[in-house]
Amino acid sequence: MPELDIQISVEEGGWPDEETLYAISEKVLQAAATYLSEHEKQPFPPLPIEISLVFTDDESIRQINAEWRQKDKPTNVLSFPAYPLQPGGKPGPMLGDIVIARETVAREAVDLDKDFDDHLTHLMVHGFLHLFGYDHLEKEEAEEMEGLETRILATLGLSDPYAGQDPII
Q1: What digits encode the pLDDT tens for the residues 30-58?
Q2: N or C: which end of the chain has fewer CB within 10 A?
Q3: Angle between helical axes of 139-155 and 116-131 (0-180°, round to 10)
Q4: Quick one: 102 exposed, middle or buried, by C-beta within 10 A (0-12, 13-18, 19+)?
Q5: Is 130 marked as binding a ligand?
Q6: What are the angstrom distances between the C-alpha of 51 and each of 1, 17, 80, 154, 160?
Q7: Is 126 a known ligand-binding residue?
């Protein structure tokens, strides 16, 4: 089983305490890593790989999104790989960072009629796959990434978050 060294940082209010977020993150990211290893034959190094999760608010993620993606608006999740990685490539000792905005997650969960924790779980998996080089810029990439997300979420007992939708590009 792949080993992960998960680092948690809560930068803004409204999130559960770090212990709770760590427990959720460990369960979700370990499930994703195990799925990639067992079903996608994703190679992992023999030592734990470090991944950082930053839990913040809309204003902070808006600033990050404006600086790094030239999109001056909040978003739900941003991923910053430590090193460029193609799907199936072996990660180094530091995988990267995932930044998640609480207000956007909460708003989307209400709009989608989903439980907050279920939507957060989906976004953690989504951000994790981005760190492994998966993307959704082209239709085929989106179908591959969304299929992986759906299968990983199923191992966690969650339904297909994309059911009835075209791939998000």
Answers
A1: 999 999 999 999 999 999 999 999 999 99
A2: N
A3: 130
A4: buried
A5: yes
A6: 16, 19, 10, 23, 25
A7: yes
Query: For residue 108, with 0-12 CB atoms within 10 Å meaning exposed, 13-18 middle and 19 or more buried, which class applies?
Result: middle
| The two three-digit tokens of residue 94, written as one number | 């530091």
Hey, which bits of 72-162 come out as E strands?
Answer: 77-81, 94-101
User: Which residues, 6+ apart, have CB-to-CB distance to 45 below 8 Å?
Assistant: 90, 91, 92, 93
Model confidence at 169, in pLDDT bands (50, 70, 90)?
Answer: low
Q: What percent of the chain has pLDDT over 70?
A: 97
Q: What is the CATH number of domain 4-155?
A: 3.40.390.30
pLDDT above 90: residue 99: yes
DSSP code at position 149: H
| CA angle (31, 141, 109) in 5-degree steps | 55
CB of 124 closer than 8 Å to CB of 28: yes
Residue 39 among known ligand-binding residues: no
